[in-house]
Amino acid sequence: MSNKVLFLKSGFPRAPLGLGIGRYVCQLQRVTLKFCKSSGSNKGMRDFLEHDLIDFSNQNPGIVVYVKPRRHRSPVIVAEYLNGERQWMNVSNYAREDIVKWMEVLRTQFHDGPKLRVRKFWHTEFPSIQGPWTPLTFRDPSHNLAQFPNKEIGAAVKTEPTATEQLIELFKAQQMSEQHQQQQEIEVQTNTSEKSN
């Protein structure tokens, strides 16, 4: 197992404050776009600034966008979130379309979420040697030697009748009782007609 998770921030899974309760609150508050006006690795960032920045700002009026030119440096996106977290991203040699996609990712996530090592609410010094439960845990071992497809093993387990079967039985019982009543009525009529003759 890789030990790179040891260097990630850890925390519990949680929803950001106010997210989805009553209204949606965009967690991204501020974006700083740092770029060089002449460097070749900054071409994608310059194209994004020329063609897509105005549309991004108009579609997201709650996000403050700063543009910071600097000489002979790699292009960088710095995102600042509502909870105070900052995410720094180097976009050197990225195409304009890639930067558009990454801006959308930064806008929709709540902070540095994918880089958070999830902690559990329980911990044990003695993990199970048996392993996790699976549907095959308590199966009969003779199934390991069976030839498949097997009608006996593959048959559906039916413990009680389904709702449809119960309705069919009720319908049949109702028809039987109606037929029985009709026969009794016919017998009564035949008996009364015989007595009158």
TrEMBL record:
Gene3D superfamilies: Glutaredoxin (3.40.30.10)
Localization annotation: Mitochondrion
Domain Ribosomal protein/NADH dehydrogenase: 37-110
Keyword entries, A-Z: Mitochondrion, Ribonucleoprotein, Ribosomal protein
InterPro entries assigned to the protein according to its UniProt record, in alphabetical order: Ribosomal_mL43, Ribosomal_mL43/mS25/NADH_DH, Thioredoxin-like_sf
Low complexity: bias regions: 178-189
A GO cellular component annotation in the UniProt record: ribosome
Positions of the UniProt region annotated as Disordered: 178-197
Domain of life: Eukaryota
Recorded family membership: Belongs to the mitochondrion-specific ribosomal protein mL43 family.
Name recorded for this polypeptide: Large ribosomal subunit protein mL43
Organism: Polistes dominula (European paper wasp)
Lineage, opening ranks: Eukaryota, Metazoa, Ecdysozoa, Arthropoda, Hexapoda
Gene it is expressed from: LOC107074538
